[in-house]
UniProtKB/TrEMBL annotation:
A molecular-function term among this protein's GO annotations: UDP-glucuronate 4-epimerase activity
Membrane topology of this protein: Multi-pass membrane protein
Organism from which the protein derives: Manihot esculenta
Domain of life: Eukaryota
Protein name: UDP-glucuronate 4-epimerase
Gene Ontology cellular component list: Golgi cisterna membrane
Length: 417
């Protein structure tokens, strides 16, 4: 009689133990899920992958509101700057804030080039009283929240996957940022009430294989030579559509090879500097019949003046809440320097400034999407934006080299391109 009872008791204890065991496993799995889920990522309280948590954070909200408020300047703008931790974005944000405008930055801090450089630019902007939100332009919840917190008068859209050659390695990143991201941003802008005016960065690369120089806004732009160029050209067509259907005021700026302090490590002037200093050989490409590759190098301060000129002359959008009320402004401008310089001359200037002789390898230009030369006609921007570049390559590179040596000596790092 005792035996079955003890067997039953054993069975009872065994099933309780089993129940406790599986409950622990289950709870463990739930905890594991939460700790590893991107929503609980500790990367940043402003991560785009944690919108719900950020969007309910009063401290985050008050930083956005404070940053978006114009300081002292009557009629100051309230500008959302996308790509704010990027090269051009950092300079534009700092200049707008300095003159008293409200500025909120947005950037996803992707690793296309050294994110530490982007973080350093963010710290610079923090000291200038500009808050840079970490997030992706493809995140509609985040964008709508920003528009709810600040009634932006303008959007300066600089976020993009830049670089011509990288498009052969990672084409989808160009579609993600330059097409899907741009459409998402325009969707949020068109639904905003009031709608902001938009100024955005297109590129000289839309002139593609054109041979007529200097490049004018009236020239055809239907022969892009890289996927990067094709996405910028697509952006210009998408801008036309949103202007036409929703009354958004949109200005596209075709930048020509921008350079200067806090620049982009993937650009030739930057990695030539790094390699010359390290004693590494640099490759200079040339066209057929030893044609010298040339660029219309444009100094960052001149580009910033062009961006501000475009923001200040942008007319208001005419729609509201997604409905067009009348025709709206649609513009495209070249922002270049109008004096193309052969890449070999760029190297000569760098050699003198760095006091180091470069080890040069000259090779025929591969078919990687690069074009042989760029040269801007800027008369339209001169007339309508008051744009007047004033920095020649020698002067601009001197400022870049001074920044480079100071930045990489101070941080004790070398640039990771
Ligand atoms: N620098 C030039 O010579 C040049 C020439 C022509 C056009 N442009 C255009 O000007 C703009 C600014 O260029 P830059 O030189 O400052 O480049 P950059 O790469 O330094 O800046 C772009 C910033 O956008 C961010 N970004 C990219 N995708 C994003 C996304 N989906 N969401 C949020 N942020 C994102 C990046 O993290 C980066 O910080 C870009 O649109 C670029 O295509 C630049």
């Amino acid at each position: 009689m005792d035996k079955p009872l003890s067997v039953n008791r054993f069975r009872y204890h065994f099933s309780i133990a089993r129940l406790v065991f599986w409950t622990c496993i289950f709870l463990g799995l739930i905890l594991l899920f939460f700790f590893h889920s991107p929503h609980s990522s500790s990367s940043s309280s402003t991560s785009d992958s944690a919108p719900r948590r950020i969007l309910a954070d009063p401290d985050w909200e008050s930083r956005v509101i404070k940053s978006g408020k114009p300081r002292s300047r009557a009629g100051g703008l309230r500008v959302l700057v996308t790509g704010a931790a990027g090269f051009v974005g950092t300079h534009v944000c700092a200049t707008l804030r300095r003159r008293g405008d409200g500025v909120v930055g947005l950037d996803n801090f992707n690793a296309y080039y050294d994110p530490a450089l982007k973080q350093a630019r963010r710290s610079l902007l923090e000291r200038a009283d500009v808050f840079v939100v970490k997030g992706d332009i493809n995140n509609p919840t985040l964008l709508s929240k920003l528009f709810e917190l600040v009634q932006f008068t303008h959007v300066m859209h600089l976020a993009a996957q830049a670089g011509v050659r990288y498009a052969m390695k990672n084409p989808s990143s160009y579609v993600h940022s330059n097409i899907a991201g741009f459409v998402n941003l325009l969707e949020v802008c068109k639904s905003a009430n009031p709608q902001p005016a938009i100024v955005w960065a297109s590129s000289s690369s839309v002139y593609g294989l054109n041979t007529k120089v200097p490049f004018s806004e009236k020239d055809r732009t239907d022969k892009p030579s890289s996927l990067y160029a094709a996405t910028k050209k697509a952006g210009e067509e998408i801008a036309h559509t949103y202007n036409h259907i929703y009354g958004l005021s949109i200005t596209g700026l075709r930048f020509f090879t921008v350079y200067g302090p806090w620049g982009r490590p993937d650009m030739a002037y930057f990695f030539f500097t790094k390699d010359i200093l390290k004693g590494k050989p640099i490759t200079i490409f040339e066209g057929p019949d030893h044609f010298s590759v040339a660029r219309d190098f444009t100094y960052i301060d001149d580009i910033v003046k062009g961006c501000l000129g475009a923001l200040d002359t942008a007319k208001k959008s005419t729609g509201s809440g997604g409905v067009k009320k009348g025709p709206a402004q649609l513009r495209v401008f070249n922002l270049g320097n109008t004096s193309p310089v052969p890449v070999s001359k760029l190297v000569n200037i760098l050699e003198k400034l760095l006091k180091v002789k470069a080890k040069k390898i000259v090779l025929p230009m591969p078919a990687n999407g690069d074009v042989l030369f760029t040269h801007a006609n800027i008369s339209l921007a001169q007339r309508e934006l008051g744009y007047k570049p004033t920095t020649d390559l020698q002067t601009g590179l001197k400022k870049f080299v001074r920044w480079y040596l100071n930045f990489y000596t101070r941080t004790g790092k070398t640039s990771n391109v």
